Every structure is written in structure tokens, then in C-alpha cells.
């Protein structure tokens, strides 16, 4: 039988594409979709600014280089640390997703916490593989399977088992400030992989196609998020399971998670490579198969996996953690890119203040200010949610684990 003991049972959000159904319930379907589209639009502009900034400054490879260009050594180190923290937390969410998937497909009565350890071992093993080209297709398998699984929703497992049941989805809702800002933060977390576009812009064979590729990518991602969130929320309402792949019941939950596990494992392994390049870039050890190269590589993958494992095991309510990280790490997809435009255009534009320049200055400042507001307010909302949930979590732990 399944054993969801501890804090990591069915109240755990890990999938960027599936927790939108929960945020849609907080905000209402229409405001939720509009919020998601707004975040997508802002991050798409941020992604576009990466390509433009890279074109203007070819020496820039990552967000840390951009930080050094604009703010010196302090800017480089702050953005580098935030970027590494972001990927570590994403890796933690992937480990938790793997553990819940293993728990769902298994008939073993082990705690989810045990499967977190199994997921960490899998993540470390796969992330230590240096060549990803031959196994990257697994991510596409996971995507196709998750998209297929959302079409099998029926009576949710969390709905009453007896009597007539109808979905209680709502077009609009009246959330509290804490619920609303937490939902917005969760949407931001879903798009906060923006800094990864630096390496894409740097390594494209034909940089002139960057904008076209970017629009294609963001369109597919946004449509995917909206489709999954709307379909699941429409059929399940407030009874949606979390993760949402469990909403269709025990049997289909096993099928859905079985399909999704390959993609989740690839997600965990892709998040552990940045630190290695940062440490050895500019040294002969980066491309040499010597003791320093392999020692640094395994230390990075092992260290990131251990920290991610601690996060996945110790955080009692991961959905609140997702909102917290989305708020704290708004710095990944808002503020730096407004600063990039101002860095490249402020001096030259002041000589001839055209309407376009004034509008872009206003837009850049809006992105910086709104990102800062969400970072502060979203952090507050997430912390309040976590603090309010602690009594319930500890009571549940005592009841199940005694």
C-alpha cells in the first residue's frame, strides 16, 4: 500500500505545470490565467533582454557576468549565489517529485521520506554523467506523458466518495492578501528559469534566430501551463490533489507517475552543473579528465544533491516553499533585466528623449519596482503560510509516526 507518512504526502506541490490548478483556485480561474499571462509576458521581455545584452556585450556568458558588468564584483557574486540557490531548490523540488512518484507506483509500505533518499541517490548518479546528449530525450518523454496524464481526470480522489459530486471551480475568487501574493509568487517560480537563456544565447549557432526561438519556447510553455492548470482545476475544483497527477484516483495515479518519472529524474540531474563550470572556468582542469576535474565534478554534484535532499526532507509544506522561493528569487527574472536596459540605453537616451525611450524607461522601472515588491510581499505571505501550517504539520507527524 502507499504510505504518505510525514509531511510529504499528497499535500506536496512539485510540478511547475500542475500546481497552477491550486493557484487558480486561490485567485479564481480568470484572474489566475491573467496573472499567469502577465508573468509570462514580463519574463519573455526579460529573456529577450538577455539576447540583446549578450549581443551588446559578447564577453557576457551568464547572469553573474552581467551583474559584474553593471554593478562590479558585488553584483557578480550576489547574482551568482542567488542563481546557484535557485537551481539547488529546483533540484530539491525534483527530488521530492521523484519520491512522490516512486511512492505512488510502489506497493511497498515505505515512508515518502525513504523515497526522498532513493531519489537523491538517483539524482546524484544521473547528474554525475557528464554527457547529457544521449539521454536528454527523456525530458521529452516526461513532458509528453504528463500532458497525456492530465486528460484522464475523472472524479478526484480527494472528493467525497459517496453521493453526487460536481466540481466547485470558480471564475473569480476573493483571496486574502497572503493567499493572493503566494499564488503570484508560485507563478513567478514557474517562469524563473530566465537566467538559463544566457547560455542559450551564448551557444546558439545562429544568434539571429534567438528572438524567434525565445517566442516559440515561451508560447509553448505558457500554453502548457494554462492548459494543465485550467483542465485540472475545471474538472477537480478545490478537490484537486497536490500534486495534481494524483487527482484521477489510485490506479491512474500510478500510471501517470510511472509515465512522468523519467522526466523528473532528468530534471533532477540537469540542475547540478552550473557550480562546476563556475569553479573551473578559465582553468585547464575544465576540459581535462584529471583528478582535479573529477574531484570537483563529484564534489559539486554530491554537494548540491545533499543540500537538495535536506531541503526536500526538512521542509514540511513544499507548496509554501515554492511560493517562498518564487518570491525570494524574483531576482532571477525581474530586476536585473530592467537594469540591463537602463545600463545600455540611459546615457544615450538622455541626449534625445524620444517617446519610445521614455516609455521603455518607465517599463524598466516598473519591472524593477514590481519585482522588488513581490520579493518582499511574497516572502512575507509565504512565511505567514508556513508558520500557520506548522501546528498542523507537527500534529500530523506525531499521529502518523508515533
From TrEMBL:
Highest rank taxon of the organism: Eukaryota
UniProt name for this protein: Uncharacterized protein
